Every structure is written in C-alpha cells, then in structure tokens.
Amino acid sequence: MDFEQCFKDSQTLLMEGALGERLKREYGLPIDGPVAMADLIYHHSGKSALRKLWTEYLSIAEEYHLPFLATTPTRRANQSQVHSAGYHSILLYDNVALLKEIQRTANTPMFVGGLMGCKGDAYTGKDSLTSAEAHNFHAWQANTFAKAGADFLFAGIMPVLEEAKGMAMAMSDTGLPYIISFTIRQDGRLIDGTTIDSAIRSIDRHVNHRPLCYMTNCVHPDILSLALSHDFNRTVNVRSRFLGLQANASPLSYEELDGSQDLKCSDPISLAQSMYHVKRKFNLRILGGCCGTDGNYLREIAKTLTSSTKTM
Questions:
Q1: Confidence at residue 266, expressed as pLDDT on a 0 to 100 scale
Q2: Beta-bridge partners for 179
Q3: Tens digit of pLDDT for each residue in 16-36?
Q4: pTM confidence score
Q5: Which residues are within 8 A (CB) of 133 and not within 5 positions of it... i.e. 6 or more apart?
Q6: Where are the domains of the chain?
Q7: Where, by residue number, does the polypeptide cross the bilayer (predicted)?
Q8: Is the distance from CB of 310 to CB of 276 less than 8 angstroms?
Q9: Within 13 A of 29's CA, how many CA atoms are on the CB side?
Q10: Which residue ranges are tagged as binding site?
C-alpha cells in the first residue's frame, strides 16, 4: 500500500514524536550546525540515537496497530546549507536510507517523509522568500528526496504564505504526495497574518498537484482548537483539507517557548486528552508529537486515540 492510499483508508495515522529536543537533552548531541540534525547519521552516537528514537516510536504504532509516519531530520538541509557545510545531495539520500532500513523491519505500514523547511525563521517569518524565489530555492531538496525514494514530502512549520506556496509548487513538480504544515497562532492565522482558510485556498489554486492535506506542528492542541474555531476558519475547505497536528507538550506560545532552556510540559494524559478532543472536533487524522514529547507522550496519545475510536 502506498502512502496516499493508506491516508485515504485510515482514520488515524501516528506521526513520530520529538527528535531534536531529545537528541540534545537525553543524548547530549549538538544540533546547531549549518544542517542541524541532518549530519548526525555520519557519527556513530548520532546515528544510534536516531535509530533508537524512531524504533521506539515505531514500536508504539505497532502496539496500537496504527500506520506510522517518520520524517528525515533535514528541515535545515536545503541546498544552500548543505553545500555550506561541505556536503552534497548524498546527505539527503543517506538520511532517507536510514529510515528505509527501519521501515523494512516494521510490522505496521510505515512511510518515510522528506522533511523540508523555510529558508528563514520559522517562528517569525524573517528572511522568508517570495513564491517564485521559494519555487526555485526548494526545488533541489524536493527533487533530491524524490530521487532518494522518499514516500512523501513534508513542509514543517511554514510561517509565511508566499514561501509555503513556492515550496508547494516545488513539491508538486516531483509527483510525490506532500503535506504542508503551517506555523500558526491562536488567532487562526499564520505568522504573516494569513488565515488558515485563505492559505489553503491560495496554495491549492497555484499548484498542479494539490497537497494531500494541510496541518500544523510545534503547537499545543488547545492553541490549534482556538485557531480553528474562528469564524473565518470554520469552512468546508478547512474541515476537509486541514487534517493533522504534531503537538507540543506545552500550551505556551512560540515566543515563550523559542530558545527556552527548560522544557515546559503538560503531562502525557492531559496532552493525549487534548489531542483526542481536537481530533474529534475538527476531524484530524494525522497525530504526533513535537517539542517536549517522548515515547511516554506518544504512547498515551496512541492509546487514547485508539480507545476512543472503539467506543465512538
């Protein structure tokens, strides 16, 4: 079964939990170089840690019989950053290959995503690109992932519509299924002020192949619930196209969390209950963890979502 068919057939898909925060805090690994986490695969301790985290998350998906989505740790590994760090396209190939190794051991459907990100700051929109610039800038990474055998493409925490639109165009050109994940606030808008509904409509109109769906990551489900509850986002368009969340464990804003020295987390049960409520209220289908989460959070999320499905 390919990713697109699995998405159509599945009520719930489990996405991975946090990587970066855990690599820093549990394993003491530096992730502040030009390509952030992407070159950890070339260090024994880094590759081992990544394998352990993904295997842990996969085992949870297997335990609860859920399809599992994992993405390469390459949000900062665009062509400019990759070359400035002295690497070439093989860096992306090797990241896909590691996840493909794990995929071959899976006892549940597992899909490997090529993770891409904005050129500038994902939380402020600083140094963002126009749609034309973004189409050209992100094409190299999108095409490389397609050649490397990624099952889908994933644009993480995109703060500005124009760059998200250009990235979507580059992703669309590959023919792979892809997902656009926005950076959103509780006011129901992207960082640049565009409403979620308007952003979806704009991107859908400007690409040859529409995203499989839209979602958000690095935000608490309670914030997402507020964002989607605004009248301008309570549309059939949003209801049918905005379908996922990788949740932070903390309900604090981006400004409060960005650069925090201490993790600020709600407990796993509370987060799982909030995930269940936002899933049920807004018909979400892709659920996973982001900052502050680990296997305990992801297991509680999977447990709560599958238990609630059986009782509905």
A1: 83
A2: 154, 213
A3: 999 999 999 999 999 989 999
A4: 0.95
A5: 163, 166
A6: 3-311
A7: none
A8: no
A9: 23
A10: 218, 290-291
